[in-house]
Design goal:
- This protein folds into 3 domains: 4-83, 3-Layer(aba) Sandwich (Rossmann fold); 112-179, Dna Ligase, domain 1 (2-Layer Sandwich), CATH 3.30.1490; 185-373, 2-Layer Sandwich (D-amino Acid Aminotransferase, Chain A, domain 1).
- Helices cover 32% and strands 28% of the residues.
- The protein has 12 helices and 18 strands.
- Strands 10, 11, 12, 13, 14, 15, 16, 17 and 18 form a 9-stranded antiparallel sheet that branches.
- α1 (13-22) crosses α10 (281-289) and α4 (87-94) packs across α5 (96-105).
- The longest helix is centred in the middle third of the chain and has 17 residues, at 223-239.
- The protein is globular and about 55 Å long.
- Bound molecules: adenosine-5'-triphosphate and magnesium ion.
- Residues 249, 260-261 line the site of magnesium ion (MG).
- Homodimer.
């Protein structure tokens, strides 16, 4: 296989983990910081070049590690003919209006919604969607940011004032008003699609969020739910003619899945695949965008992942716990920031639970609340 140069739009941990997965395959990754227009080495963070045109010229393939990319940059990349997945797919992940339309077009179940750009549309949304209601900015939201919960009508004025600010501050902004879904749990499906239409999906992960941020993901083996999720995955991926890894987040309402949102990229809830699958999501993403056959996605042993949020050290005792794999991202410490994750593997689900308990006993409850509740 010939050497491939892949340019990743975005220079965070996802580009870093693509780089780690690509190296043995002779796939080199350069990362493009869309704010500074610097080309960055994804492991050392050294600046290795400047400017989008240079970055594009040096790449065989261009992909993205996040969806909030200026459309002007996406268009230049698209014109080069090297961008995978397409601009359309990346925009669907970065604009909840386009995303909701896509879910409707693909005929997959999702929460009832309407779009708000002014006060009278807010009133109409309250009548149409009902209370409680979740309000989300169409552009720029992540990790639960840019969201409001309308639980009682008394909150209408104060929420409107905040939403109005958001509408005024961001060009082309809108708010998606969504029914509150009384879900039992949240699951996600990560899969990959190649240009020839081949699709592989990993086992579903069950996800526990704390304050809107993913804390714990566990791969699950539930064939009926898996089949439901896979059908929805195929409908969405085919609709987009998608190339690469795609993540879909679902609400599980008594065994029926509703799509919450999609991410047109490798995803935090798929990090467990680094230790729990034969071929991890980062490698499968590179295989898909480089138009290579997709790799085995089966669960090879019970596996979970816990995020390290806002910490840059862990007790050394973690090395005494068998089958815990720590992955640091090399980022500067900031409160709540995703700094790394730990993948935990076991021979059985009982053993996985035991190991998670051991891990909880050495990690502070304030930083790992989901682990302690487990
Ligand atoms: P991410 O970090 O996944 O990008 P996000 O900021 O894009 O998150 P969502 O995934 O849409 O936002 O919402 C964050 C969390 O809020 C969800 O994981 C879920 O727990 C809750 N939530 C979102 N929408 C609804 C809804 N309609 N009903 C109930 N809970 C919801
Ligand atoms: Mg989400």
């Amino acid at each position: 296989m010939v050497n491939q140069q892949v340019l990743v739009l975005g220079a965070g941990q996802l580009a870093r983990m693509m780089s780690l997965a690509g190296a043995p395959l002779n796939i080199d990754i350069a990362a493009f910081d869309v704010d500074s227009e610097k080309i960055i080495h994804p492991l050392t963070q050294h600046v290795i070049g400047h400017g989008l045109n240079n970055a594009i010229a040096q790449a065989n393939v261009i992909t993205a590690e996040f969806e909030h990319i200026p459309h002007s940059i996406l268009e230049v990349c698209e014109r080069s003919g090297k961008l995978q997945p397409s601009t359309q797919a990346i925009k669907a992940g970065g604009d909840r209006r386009i995303e909701k339309q896509l879910l409707d077009d693909a005929n997959v179940a999702n929460a009832k919604y309407t779009i708000i750009t002014n006060r009278s549309e807010f009133d109409a949304a309250i009548a149409y969607v009902g209370v409680p209601m979740v309000l989300k900015t169409a552009l720029g939201g992540y990790d639960g940011k840019g969201q409001w919960r309308l639980k009682q009508l008394e909150q209408v004025e104060s929420i409107w004032q905040e939403m109005e600010q958001s509408l005024l501050n961001t060009p082309h902004q809108a708010i998606v008003a969504e029914e509150f879904v009384p879900f039992g749990r949240e699951v996600s499906l990560i899969g990959a699609r190649r240009a020839n239409g081949d699709i592989v999906v990993y086992p579903l992960a069950e996800n526990i969020h704390v304050d809107g941020v993913l804390s714990l993901s566990t791969a699950i083996n539930e064939p009926e739910l898996q089949e439901q999720a896979k059908k929805m995955f195929i409908a969405i991926a085919d609709k987009l003619n998608y190339v690469g890894v795609l993540a879909i987040e679902f609400f599980d309402v008594e065994g029926l899945l509703l799509v919450n949102e999609i991410a047109p990229r490798v995803h935090n809830s798929g990090h467990w695949t680094q230790q729990g699958a034969e071929v991890c999501q980062f490698e499968n993403h590179l295989r898909a965008v480089c138009n290579l056959p997709l790799g085995d996605t089966r669960l090879i042993r019970p596996t979970a992942m816990v995020n390290i949020l806002g910490l840059d050290t862990l007790p050394e005792a973690i090395f005494d716990i068998p089958n815990c794999h720590t992955h640091w991202y090399g980022k500067e410490k900031r409160s709540g920031r995703k700094m790394g994750h730990i993948n935990i593997c076991a021979d059985s689900s009982e053993q996985l639970n035991d190991t998670l308990k051991k891990l909880a006993s050495i990690l502070p409850v304030a930083d790992f609340p989901a682990l302690h509740k487990h």
